[in-house]
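Interim report, section 4.2 (structural modelling).
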Amino acid sequence: AQKITQTQPGMFVQEKEAVTLDCTYDTSDQSYGLFWYKQPSSGEMIFLIYQGSYDEQNATEGRYSLNFQKARKSANLVISASQLGDSAMYFCAMRDRGAQKLVFGQGTRLTINP
Amino acid sequence: GAGVSQSPSNKVTEKGKDVELRCDPISGHTALYWYRQSLGQGLEFLIYFQGNSAPDKSGLPSDRFSAERTGGSVSTLTIQRTQQEDSAVYLCASIRDAMADTQYFGPGTRLTVL
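Predicted structure of the assembly:
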């Protein structure tokens, strides 16, 4: 069975610092996709970044990058130059190619301090 | 609109009543998902629709839960004889097609069962 583990329930970071949110996953499939979503207090799930299991390069989207270490089954999200607006819940998720649903971790609540 | 929309945004009901939650996916998206997010938790898959195929209902927690998708577009999630443990945010997501990777979420419906 697929499983996503996010070991940091909460993170506190000073504005403008970089922050790494941890995510490890477990799957027996060779083909899968990894996602990060942001959920601000408004409740909407905002897609941030995607990494395919066969992608050789780490995904990047603006200030977001995904540190993909396949052998260690980790897919950490790195946010550079954090901003106050980055304060939110962050969820790591995985989708196996053979399945359609996303499996989510428990989330990390990130707070950016001024 | 360009995004996934859901209605109502909030629903308060009494235990034992039936409720209907609506989701309008992004135009042209063929696949639609329902998830449930209990307080402080990650997202739990409920049901998945893809085109005219039979839906994947493997995540529905009990036979009180059902969903339909009419005309390959709008979907309704129905909860019969609501219980207090049904209180949660119900999120809908759509995806362009079965081979696409990214699910786009609506703002959710917050259901409170008194």
